[in-house]
TrEMBL record:
Its EC number is 3.2.1.86. Belongs to the glycosyl hydrolase 1 family. Coiled coil: none annotated. It is an enzyme of class 3 (hydrolase). The active site is at E373 (nucleophile). This is 6-phospho-beta-glucosidase. The lineage of its organism: Bacteria, Bacillati, Bacillota, Bacilli, Bacillales. It comes from the Bacteria. Keywords: Glycosidase, Hydrolase. It holds the Pfam family Glyco_hydro_1. InterPro entries: GH, GH_1_N_CS, Glyco_hydro_1, Glyco_hydro_1_AS.
Length: 476
């Protein structure tokens, strides 16, 4: 008998801005990523989003991406072949409201998602919908200042209300904001924030996050009013931060880093800013401007479940000199853990850390959890016969799923598991295709060349067996 219940939601996860393409099709407006080139030029200060879309670069990865916009039927059929019970995907805000501030939605954009939902329903795959996955319309960033402007709350609520009204009969599980804490690490993508050199960066980021929190709470209110069965979740970019040594200064430094990632989820789950936020904001020189009633809104409309991504744990020291040795494996920088191996992109592989993180999150909030991102980005080789032997990915996933099941045995309630990038997609941070996560290979390279043909990797058949056994067969 499987440790996981018969209703456990096995599946995969993708995001509109990383798979769809069709960036100027059927009335879609510019997404934040539509202005981002690939490679080093993607990173500030080499790239300045304030300059808008121009011809400085010959390739923008999101403009075609993997063309899910035209190939969604083929891709969903492959997901169904693997046995997916659920697909976590996002709806592109600028596909529905091209500028973001319109009063009426773009019906052509909604029509596309109607067809996606139809196809999922055809194969019995439950949709898990992220309302805003790093996809604030660029126009709101350029004209309004993104989430730093309180008006964006109203624009978001107008958008969310359209989705709830149209799709609540088809969607049970919603996520308001993808990885809300990433606004502190990639503020342009996370919050549509175009921060200049002399700006008070901390003030802008935390104020923008407050507006996202208010928007999340009010969206929860609206969703419940439209259909009380709607389940609304928040999402955390998770991964426990360990102390570098047993030195008390290191332990305190790790505690502070963990609080930095949990602060927004504390608000969304518990309904108020945590006690430690007062000193944190004072130390950062941040003052959160609130409107009358904000505290009551946050307290009244909390989330139903906690969803999160997990890729690796991190190490933190209380010694500034030691912390100079941090390496950035992703948007998060960490000291190197001598007990762990790392991927080709420097992500430290820590399966036990998933169990630790799950226990920490549940101990903190006592709400059901949902793993909505987990996976290994690596370089895959296509053999002459078209096969792809990604044993490294299978090993990574198997070991993480083993620890996930151990956490469930620990008493952590878990709704489901949707691994990230179930089909190869464009990296959000680097714009690369070379860093592949999928069970399905997409023939496209870092410069946008390739047939876009889909190929099943070895992991495709492995995950198929995992789902068939409800997690009992993780062998590799």
């Amino acid at each position: 008998m499987s440790v996981l219940g018969k209703d456990f939601l096995w599946g995969g996860a993708i995001a509109a801005n990383q798979v769809e393409g069709g960036y100027d099709t059927a009335g879609k407006g510019l997404s934040l990523v539509d202005l981002l080139p690939a490679g080093e030029a993607r990173k500030a200060p080499l790239f300045n989003p304030a300059k808008g879309l121009n011809n400085s670069f010959d390739f923008y990865p999101s403009h075609q991406s993997i063309d899910f916009y035209h190939r969604y039927e083929e891709d969903i059929k492959l997901f169904a072949e693997m046995g997916f019970k659920a697909l976590r995907f996002s709806i592109s805000w600028p596909r529905i409201f091209p500028h973001g501030d319109e009063t009426e939605p773009n019906e052509k954009g909604l029509a596309f998602y109607d067809k996606v939902f139809d196809t999922l329903e055809k194969y019995g795959i439950e949709p898990i919908v992220t309302i805003n996955h790093f996809d604030t319309p660029y126009y709101l960033a350029e004209i309004y200042g993104g989430w730093y402007n309180r008006k964006t709350v109203d624009f978001f609520l107008n958008y969310a209300t359209v989705l709830f009204n149209r799709y609540s009969h088809r969607v049970k599980y919603w996520i308001t904001h993808n990885e809300i804490n990433m606004i502190l690490h990639i503020p342009y993508i996370g919050g549509g924030l175009i921060i200049q050199e002399n700006d008070n960066k901390n003030q802008i980021m935390y104020q923008a996050a407050h507006h996202q929190l208010i928007a999340s709470s009010l969206a929860t209110k609206i969703a419940k009013e439209i259909d009380e069965t709607n389940q609304i979740g928040c999402m955390l970019a998770a991964g426990d931060v360990y102390p570098n040594t047993s030195h008390p200064d290191d332990v305190m430094a790790a505690l502070s880093k963990n609080r930095e990632q949990y602060i927004f989820i504390d608000v969304q789950s518990r309904g108020e800013y945590p006690s430690y936020s007062k000193r944190m904001f004072e130390d950062l020189g941040v003052f959160i401007e609130k409107q009358t009633g904000d505290d009551e809104i946050l307290k009244t409309y909390t989330v139903d479940y906690i969803s999160f991504s997990y890729y690796s744990s991190r190490l933190e020291s209380g010694n500034k000199e030691i912390n100079k040795n941090k390496e950035a494996g992703n948007a998060f920088a960490s000291l190197k853990n001598p007990h762990l191996e790392a991927s080709n992109w420097g992500w430290q592989i820590d399966p036990v850390g998933l169990r630790v993180t799950m226990n920490q999150i549940y101990d903190r909030y006592q709400k059901p959890l949902f793993i909505v991102e987990n996976g290994l980005g690596e370089i895959d080789k296509v053999e002459e016969d078209g096969s792809i032997h990604d044993t490294y990915r299978i090993k990574y996933l198997s070991e993480h799923l083993n620890q996930m099941i151990e956490a469930v045995k620990d008493g952590v309630p878990l709704l489901g598991y949707t691994s990230w990038g179930c089909i190869d997609l464009v990296s959000a941070v680097s714009g690369e295709m070379k860093k592949r996560y999928g069970y399905i290979y997409v023939d496209r390279d870092n410069k946008g060349h390739g047939s876009l043909n889909r190929l099943r990797k070895d992991s495709f058949y492995w995950y198929q067996r995992v789902i068939q056994s409800n997690g009992d067969n993780l062998s590799y």
